[in-house]
Amino acid sequence: MSNGEAKSTAYIPYQMLYKIIWEICNGMISGFGFCSDIGDTKFFENSVALRYLPVRWLAPECFHGKFSRGSDTWSFGVLLYEVFTLGDAPYDDLQKAEEIRECVLHSRIPAHPRYASRQLYILLQQCFHRYPERRPPFTQLKANFRNEMKALFVDMAYE
Length: 159
Fold this sequence. Notes:
Residues 1-153 form the Protein kinase domain. By secondary structure, the chain is mainly α. The protein is 50% helix and 0% strand. The chain is globular, with a radius of gyration of 18 Å.
């Protein structure tokens, strides 16, 4: 195998991961089982329905019954964490929903995924911003991934 082929082989996992993320950005992430209108009382703080939500993927404000595009961005950040750890669950060291809730409410975000670049981790940190309105919209996330993919593929072609 030539040196160029060896270098290209090292990039294959990143290419596949970015392709998966690109497809997710273009498609639906989940079903509509827990969907509601903004302001729907079904998920207000301390409601019974909150007990059935996937706490590992919820933004801090969701525990107070507030859902928004920003909370969707947080959940997408958790999905990215799973992708770039090759399937590790966020907050894997915790088992009880209440422990996970406390970590999220106190701004403990998942650690740097072992297969994520520095630039991607910076993007993840933006997805986990304390204030939902400061989290990047999906249009910005898509543009960032497009730039990351272009850099990956262009660099490979000319090395």
